[in-house]
Design brief:
5 helices, single chain, 125 residues, alpha+beta
């Protein structure tokens, strides 16, 4: 018997209790707190190994990946664990231990909120 279940996708604007990282950059200037939180996310993604791990998790079938499926990124397993920890600390990933393995998934509203933040409100000239 499997305890795997599909989770619904959340719209970051309407999901109850879900707060996007910040408003679109064209909407208004960021507050100091919004800038700190957003910078931590982009800083975590600024490392090529972390960006690759984030991409592997985000694009994995079912929206989550076992650490055993994503550890082949050209660095040692302890280094993979370090990078995954940094992505979690930045609020980009969540994890769940199942037996001896840890499964990672992208926070439900992260990609939509980050994309929305970078999207211009008006078409560029």
């Amino acid at each position: 018997m499997s305890n795997v279940k599909a989770l619904p996708l959340l719209d970051p604007v309407v999901a109850e209790g879900v707060v996007p990282c910040c408003p679109p950059l064209t909407e208004r200037p960021l507050t100091a707190e919004e800038a700190e939180r957003t910078a931590a996310m982009f800083k975590a993604l600024g490392d090529p190994v972390r960006l690759r791990l984030f991409s592997l998790v985000a694009s994995h079938e079912g929206g989550e990946a076992c650490v055993c499926d994503i550890s082949d990124v050209g660095v040692s397993q302890p280094t993979v664990s370090h990078h995954l920890k940094k992505l979690k600390e930045a609020g980009l990933l969540t994890s769940e231990r199942r037996g001896t393995w840890v499964y990672y998934r992208v926070e439900p509203s992260v990609m939509a909120a980050m994309g929305q933040m970078l999207t211009a409100a008006a078409p560029m000239a």
